[in-house]
Amino acid sequence: MLAADYNNQLCVDFSAVVIEDMATRVGEIQWKTLDVRDMEGIGDGVIDVAIDKSTLDAMVSGDLWNLPDGVRNKIGRYIDEVSH
Q1: How far apart, in whole angstroms, are the C-alpha atoms of residue 53 and residue 10?
Q2: How far is CA 78 from CA 45, 56, 82, in A?
Q3: What band does 70 get if pLDDT is binned at 50, 70 and 90?
Q4: Which of 1, 20, 58, 74 counts the highest number of beta carbons within 10 A?
Q5: Are 32 and 75 within 8 A, CB to CB?
Q6: What pLDDT score was predicted for residue 23?
Q7: What is the 3-state secondary structure (H, E, C) of the chain?
């Protein structure tokens, strides 16, 4: 996306190790250690487009058509947070 001149990017991950590593590799992007289910400090309506790179897939466990309540809750919090 940087090559296509999308310069105002924010990438988040819950792992500080990943964020530190990526920030040294690609310094032109803003990197933050955050939980996508509660992105404190990121105001509502600030993000124009969210691209999910397997985050939702990683949260799903169990029967896809009959998710356990805990999984359903995590996914709901993620979708609610990203859509605001």
Answers
A1: 13
A2: 15, 8, 6
A3: very high
A4: 74
A5: no
A6: 96
A7: CHHHCCCCCEEEECCHHHHHHHHHHCCCCEEEECECCECCCCCCCCCCCCCCCCHHHHHCCCCCCCCCHHHHHHHHHHHHHHHC
Q: Are strands 10-13 and 30-33 parallel, antiparallel or unpaired?
A: parallel
Asked if 28 and 2 count as a contact pair (C-beta separation under 8 A), the reply is: yes
Give the rounded percent of residues in the chain with a pLDDT score beyond 70. 100
Nearest-angstrom CA–CA distance, 2 and 5: 5
> What are the structural domains of the chain?
2-83 (3.40.50.150)
- Residue at token pair 């590799």: 25
